[in-house]
Amino acid sequence: MPLSDAQRRVHAWISQYQEGYFHPLTNLARLSEEVGELAREVNHRFGQKTKKKDEPAGDLAMEMADILFVLICMANREGIDLEEAFDRMMAKVESRDAERWTRKAGNGER
Question: Do the beta carbons of residue 67 and residue 35 sit within 8 Å?
Fold first, then answer.
């Protein structure tokens, strides 16, 4: 799904409610919470902190999706086109970091 479609989908959902989008600082706090949940799951899977025996397995994909949802909310509230911003960011790293890393043999794609 293109980011523009995701932004429209989130906006359609949020627009159903009188409260609308949260304020920027509330969204930032929500983003911090979601990043913390992702960090906890990554630490449980790949770090030294193991889960408690009675603790259910986490969902890494859902933790990432939660972060994406909050970022989309933040962008929508501020009128930011994430596709355009992402394209600008990729152009920056593609030029700035083109020779920074060791390329794979062949075309260099994943």
Answer: yes
